[in-house]
Specification:
This protein has ten helices and 26 strands. The chain has an eight-stranded antiparallel beta sheet, with helices on one face. A six-stranded mixed beta sheet has the order 1-2-6-3-7-24, with helices on both faces. It has a three-stranded antiparallel beta sheet with strand order 4-5-26. The chain is elongated. The termini are close together.
Length: 470
């Protein structure tokens, strides 16, 4: 039996300088999705990042193809059908504010690599490329072809992957380093809804307007409202009875009072870790004795969108199963203009259900309080059997390389393989790591960068096999 696997760590170590240089070249390209142009479906910068990646792969001796600037294909053996696919993306979210290093100039500091995309997903992409190159450099003859697929639209809906699947068939075994170790084999289904409730502010004591939340997939940290005909002492007395662990501030402006509720943000897949300012405000406003329909309307909504309730009990959608856990629910955005209340909700549901069932249950709960769904989007849960040879092989590789116990995990979020058949997430970080993904000072340790390359090289070797030479 070949001793190739024992040579992989040293080979990766020797290639580290080149890996850093090539990752730096990718980080310098601000590959945020832009306006579509002819030949550039997601703008020029994602296409430029794709071209750079294919250029790097070609320089290392691989066969490459650019599929209309949607995705790139890097094959170990271009004349063989791939049996293993590895999927990464080169597009990134906008840099935002608060950086201590230039977001588009990779910085190596205190053992960490900094820059937009180093962990999501350019760093893992370079690790995959050099995992393949390490095997090539060591003269490995694989029994089967591995195809590295690099996309450019994961952050904005994965239409790149949908385009690829119209042109090419995905390998039956597929993993992405767009998640966490050990293996994510289950991703809950997701539903996002816009709903409306019409009622008019006409009274002297009334609720005039409300606005809260900024994104659908997060627990809202802030919500503001304007009421009229109430004194600040009166409002403070009501708020003292609203036990929501949030804070309220009141500012008078003539007959009006501006109310600001401050809570705590959290990702929609873990709403129990946040404090929802929108549902807290609903509870306060629903406690007000108005002389028009606004108070009763907000009370009705506060009883279906209950503060502190993250499992959808009052909406009739509470459910769970042993594999994926419980459904999670967030009322994340709201706006009331004196005539119509509009809201957004995010639901992550287990594999025991489907989007049709969730919608029907919501419509039943909404009907008595005259809430109507105006927009509904959803994706079904994604699940791959943990007992498959594919997953069991990946777990053995993980345990061998990391020295840790391997297991499959379920998440409420979604990865790049969510709408593929049989795909799993395998790295490229560990659960609990704080790599500032999507935030300022995005980072990845140099050790993890090299660890990923070794992990993926050994995974390819284990899954594709090595030709035994006589």
């Amino acid at each position: 039996m070949s001793n190739i696997k024992f040579k992989i760590p040293k080979t990766i170590e020797d290639l580290t300088g080149d890996m850093i240089e090539d990752l730096s070249a990718l980080i310098r390209i601000p590959s945020v999705r832009g306006e579509a142009e002819e030949g550039y479906p997601f703008g020029k910068e994602p296409a430029r990042a794709l071209e750079k990646m294919l250029e790097l792969a070609k320089r290392l001796g691989f066969s490459v193809r650019n599929v209309d600037n949607y995705v790139g294909i890097i094959d170990f053996y271009p004349k063989r059908e791939p049996t293993l696919g590895i999927l990464c993306h080169l597009d990134v979210v906008p840099e935002g504010n608060g950086w201590h290093t230039p977001p588009y100039e990779m910085t190596l500091k205190d053992g960490n690599l900094y820059g937009r995309g180093v962990i999501d997903d350019k760093g893992p992409a370079i690790s995959v490329l050099y995992a393949m190159f390490a095997l090539k450099k060591l003269g490995v003859n694989l029994k089967e072809n591995v195809r590295f697929i690099v996309g450019t639209d994961e952050e904005c809906g994965s239409s790149d992957l949908a385009y690829y699947m119209k042109k090419e068939k995905l390998p039956t075994r597929l993993f992405t380093p767009d998640g966490s170790y050990p293996i994510i084999n289950l991703e809950k289904g997701q539903v996002r809804i816009t709903f409306e409730k019409k009622f008019t502010s006409t009274g002297t004591k009334t609720i005039k307007n409300v606005v809260g939340g900024t994104v659908t997939n997060a627990v809202p940290e802030m919500c503001e409202a304007t009421v009229s005909g109430f004194s600040i002492p009166e409002l403070k007395a009501v708020s003292s009875k609203v036990d929501t662990e949030t804070t309220f501030e009141f500012t008078a402006n003539g007959d009006d009072v501006r109310i600001v509720c401050t809570g705590k943000s959290a990702h929609a897949s873990q709403p129990e870790t946040g404090k929802n300012a929108v549902t807290s405000m609903l509870k306060l406003l629903g406690s007000l004795d108005t002389d028009d329909a606004t108070g009763k309307s907000f009370k009705d909504m506060s009883e279906v969108f209950v503060y502190g309730e993250t499992d959808g009990t009052s909406l009739g959608v509470k459910m769970s199963d042993d594999k994926s856990g419980a459904l999670t629910f967030v009322h994340s955005i709201n706006k009331y203009d004196g005539e119509k209340y509009t809201g957004r909700i995010d639901i992550r549901f287990p594999i025991c259900s489907n989007t049709k069932e969730v919608r029907e249950k919501l419509e039943t709960a909404f009907k008595p309080v005259e809430i109507e769904i105006s927009e509904f989007t959803g994706v079904e849960p994604h699940y791959v059997d943990e007992n498959s040879d594919f997953i069991q092989t990946l777990l053995r590789v993980y345990e061998d390389v990391s020295g840790r116990k391997g297991s499959c995990i379920a998440i409420g979020g979604g990865t790049y393989v969510h709408e593929t058949e049989g795909g799993v997430a395998f790295g490229g970080e560990f659960i609990g790591d704080d790599n500032h993904m999507h935030g300022a000072d995005e980072k990845m340790s140099l050790d993890l960068f090299k660890f990923n390359a070794r992990m993926y090289a050994e995974a390819i070797l284990a899954l594709c096999g090595e030709v035994e030479l006589n």
